[in-house]
User: Fold these one by one.
Assistant:
Number 1:
Amino acid sequence: MPSFCPPSEASSPVPTPLFSVPSTPETERDDCFDEPAALAAEDAQFVLVTGGLGYIGSHTTLELLKAGYNVIVVDNLSNSFHHVFDRILMAAKLHFDRVGGRCPRVELACIDFRDRAAMAALLAAHAVSSLDLDLGQDQDQAHPQGRSNITGVIHFAAYKEVHDSLRNPLKYYQNNITGLVDLLGLLDQYDIKTFIFSSSANVYGTLAHDHGTLREEHCVHQPTTYRDADGHEVVSEQGCTGITNPYGRTKFFGEAILADLALSDPSWTIIGLRYFNPIGCDPSGLLGEDPRGVPSNLVPVVMQVLTGQLAELSVYGSDWGTPDGTAIRDFIHVSDVARGHTAALAAAHEQRVLSTFRTFNLGTGSGHSVAEVVSAMENVTQQPIPRRIADRRPGDVASCVAIADRAAAELGWRAEKTLQDACRDLWNYLRFNPTEFCLS
Ligand SMILES: NC(=O)c1ccc[n+]([C@@H]2O[C@H](COP(=O)([O-])OP(=O)(O)OC[C@H]3O[C@@H](n4cnc5c(N)ncnc54)[C@H](O)[C@@H]3O)[C@@H](O)[C@H]2O)c1
């Protein structure tokens, strides 16, 4: 069994992968900057990605580059590492070497998105004069800071640990809510009004107890009428039922704030993407889930058991009333989640979104139990994963699975990858990063 190695700052430098690594394409990168540099190409358009070095953000940045978007990443490294930026560039270069074409531009700003002065400087560096946009004087008065070449924002940056949020609720409300409100005000000044928000299946709270499979209308911010699976008309009132922790509440409140904003000003296009349980990583083995601190999600803990950093996995409850007794979740490959963002952005830019605020589940539509995930990982790795049964955790539910039909119908997006794909890619990531994870 490999020896213990804490996943700390010491793991930050880019480890030596087991395959040939392309050199960083210097012409296409800008180094991390505190003072945003003036743009070289005035007419280029960008997508701003907050939290773009985190687990889902890094995969989404890569998918955006593959789809041809120029990207500005904002991250304060509170739960990620600077080397992730180099990994994104390497993975993008591998992609464009394979398929041909030129990698779009990507910039990194290592700033806190709540730092108003730093964000204002970044947005000012991307402001486009009214002359360039051929706007009238009225437009300038409506947007005192001018217009922008940033055509949309994907907002991942947030704190996300359920149990930490129970201990430190104000920390969560400050970053996830106060930060969001201030960011929206700043974006408004630059007329940046396409906004994609990282929401969560957490907004359904204990509704999962009643429904098992969850559709967007189960949690709404305006009264909504829909037909259920039996064709009966159902009226869904706004509000939420049984959200069990401050983290989940920040996602519900965040959505509610965005819904109110979109209602008050229909020039916004706002999409809330409700992720179910993202797992896996990019098949290149260059990107993965590498949080600072102690992880609590199933897969990062399984990874720590596989690398010997943890002796065993705690399985919370084996009496859930599911076929094997362990809880069922909708595990979705993170690259599918990432592609959900490019699909949402395209729909927003092409004005195909049915309302100014719209939510979409990003899930596969089918569930796997915790025991199934562990055994799938054991099959791929050919290593036993020691586990013990622990008590159920407060707030957990037996089953939480998405109905993902809305995203398929309106965004043209479906999850494509399987649980086995996710396990194989995770194992690649572990093997390609031996120094980071202490595999020998
Ligand atoms: N991973 C999941 O299972 C999951 C499920 C549902 C929703 N979400 C949401 O998706 C988003 C991304 O999740 P993730 O798993 O990639 O998390 P992550 O922690 O890996 O990524 C978040 C990134 O945001 C950065 N960040 C945090 N606060 C910041 C700030 N104030 N300024 C600048 N950067 C900041 C962190 O350094 C990190 O790189 C979060 O909003 C999370 O709540 C995640």
Note: The pocket of nicotinamide-adenine-dinucleotide is lined by residues 50-51, 53-57, 74-80, 112-114, 156-158, 160, 175, 179, 198, 200, 275, 277-278, 291, 297 (CB under 6 Å).
Number 2:
Amino acid sequence: MTATTYREPAFPDENALAPELLLRMHDIMVRARCLEERLIRMNKQGDGFFWIGGPGEEALNTALGMLVHKGQGPNYDYLHLHYRSSATVLAMGIDPVDALRQQKNTATDPYSAGRNFCNHYAIRKWNVLPVSSPIEVQFSMAPGTALANKRAGGRGITIVQGGDAGTAEGDFATCLIWCSRPGAELPCLMIVANNQWGISTPAGEQHGEKHIADRARPFGIRAAVVDGNDAEVVYRELKRAMDYVRTERKPFLFEAMVSRLYGHSSASGANFAPGEADCLQLFEEKLEDRKILTRTAMDELRAKYTQELLEASKRVREEPQPTGDTIWQHIFADGTSPAHPQVLPERGRNSDGTSPASPARGAGHKRNGT
Ligand SMILES: Cc1ncc(C[n+]2csc(CCOP(=O)(O)OP(=O)(O)O)c2C)c(N)n1
């Protein structure tokens, strides 16, 4: 049952996917790279306080976004992503302009109304839960949505993704344990994007285990270690893992070896890191070798998306920032806030006059006078 595998292709062609699929993947990967490059430039120009993102994870994340069963509710996939998942949501169909809006913290940012860092997506209509800056907490939430998927009885699964360093957190163990209870296994795909860095800590100085995926073994969870810099391999292996979780309704731990092409974040300079394998460059060499795309066509595509995003960033710069009087919005689902006392329940009472089972939320704010 348990299998940690590092699969090398038996034949060179074993990995080959249909040219149309490769072209679609390439288009999204190029657009995702151009988006990240634009976000970095915006940050360096003073548009937004921080940058963190996914250059180097495009092969893995594009494949993931293309394979998601997209929709709202427990019959569809739930996604607990991390701050390097731009290519996943692009592949799912977001408008990249919205990512620029979050970078610039405009009021028009649909993910946080200008309140969060870039690449912190939250898309209710596609079950994309809010990306968390505190790392790994998504792994302790994932069993909850996986349980909802299971109870719904359909084919929806839960997908949770984080980095390698984050697996040191207890949340990772929580996910392994709660997804593998005997007879109560959960349909959860755990993805570790292993770039072998935790900010500035090299994985080699931190991990005694050979592969993070090996930690699935004692729980009887299936696992694989995959070259995340090979777009074809990672697409095929991810599909295999997703099919398993979808049909068997059991967990899978998928470790993809990826790169971190611009360092950790703007906190470490966000400069290109030479010497790391680049999944996009490797993919383009393959497409050129197989005569699926010419170098000229690829250069034109990149120039087109670079220009599109440059123009969009200029428009976004003119959009309004959130105003101070909106500060309490988007905090409580029922709309209560100290700024809108008329909708606050009376202290110790629900708004309909009944006694609450637990203390009314607004009452705490009132009492504190905040
Ligand atoms: C709970 C928590 N601890 C520490 C941090 C600080 N921090 C931010 S990113 C990061 C490294 C994460 O490394 P990894 O999980 O490998 O993901 P990567 O950023 O390399 O993709 C750390 C320690 C945090 N955000 N949250």
Note: Strands lie at 4-6, 78-80, 158-163, 188-194, 197-198, 201-202, 222-227, 252-257.
Number 3:
Amino acid sequence: MVQRDDLLVLGVDWHVHYDHSAGEIVSAFLKGLGNGVIQGRHCPLCGAVWLPPRAYCERCFVATDQWVSVGPGGVLEAFTIVGQKFDNLPEPPYVIAFARLDGSDSSLANFLTMTLGSVEEMAERLAVGQRIRAEFKPESQRQLRITDFHYVLA
Ligand SMILES: [Zn+2]
């Protein structure tokens, strides 16, 4: 990285709260998470099950027609180990994983929780293709958010 002594670095805090509609599909998906169920959307033409759920199939450009329960097992398709602290995120190191849950045809990102302590230990333990499973928080702690569950190694 190039550093120049003549350039200023300005610290700025932005605190913006914004309420928006989650829409029909995402609202139903998040309500399902509150009940401990992960559901994708089925395409009537190609049969794909999209997760995160989509109103339209991105292959066929037709409306998806039904909900399909997926998981809790799945396959780790990609991951990153975060070793840097970011505001409003967990203490590093932690893992963000893309997993394709059983019964779905696309990957869903979420935290993958591990008990190992260092980035190196995590990197040695993780591999694309490993089995994972979705594990829900206790019902009383769910907030109708994607973080109502996380992945763990199966
Ligand atoms: Zn389709």
Note: Residues 56 and 63 are 4 Å apart (CA to CA).
